[in-house]
């Protein structure tokens, strides 16, 4: 996500395409490049809850990843947020 419209668009696309029921899961990974991507992630998480049929965050973690966004070799390493969402259950409490 790199635009303010993307969180709601992605949430809507997942909602429209995720099978109905409590078992299907959507796995989403977001590279945490800077404050902008962190802000967009928070907007995305809220957009998932604001759907007519909310998608709940069941699990989350952080992973080390490689990024091709920058030009420096050091910029190739990025921390990524990983979230697992479902239609059933209740929101993850942190």
UniProtKB/TrEMBL annotation:
This is Uncharacterized protein.
